[in-house]
Amino acid sequence: MRMANHAELVKKVIAGEFEKMLRLNSFSDIFIMDLVTTCGISRNTFYYYFKDKYDLMNHIAVADIASMEARQTEEITFGEVVLSVCGMMFYRRKFYYPCLQYSGQNSLYEFLNEYFAARWLEIVSSPKTFDETDEMSTDKLVAGMKSFAVVGKIKEWVKMGMTEKQFKSFEKIRDILNDEAACYQFCPKEQYTVVESREMKIVS
């Protein structure tokens, strides 16, 4: 128990100093050597807990998401999940805005894509039966498209500076997503098909 508490304390210190550095530096200008010096730890200690700064960044996001989910009810809709995540990022934009300037491998955008796809499957597709190993299943294709669309809107929001005015648009996006989810749950899966334009339509 003592070792576990120590590990959590070290990770908390590293995460805290990382966030402080992001207030003064861009994500690309933060280096592990500077971070460990600020924390008063060795490079070996850092790499014992995190693979790199991208892993650290995602660790913080996972912790934020877990804290957010702890306050959610079981009846939450997919649209509310999206709005909650965006609200959390807006509230903590001093951390998320600089991190979301990076869009390469292991970025927060990749994390969000996976997260939203998983939540769609959990919330919207749960009444359906689908093969989790089948990457071409209708459920997974739809989940991937919904996630990709949501993350695309988040990218637009970031480009506009993550302003409060643009954040308000996610309230309308929430309603649109909830309507789409209700339609998907109501209609038999056999009535859906993926068209060449990569959009979903109901086949009459």
TrEMBL record:
Domain HTH tetR-type: 8-68
Record key words, sorted: DNA-binding
GO MF entries: DNA binding
DNA-binding region: 31-50
Superkingdom field: Bacteria
Protein name: HTH tetR-type domain-containing protein
Protein species of origin: Catonella morbi ATCC 51271
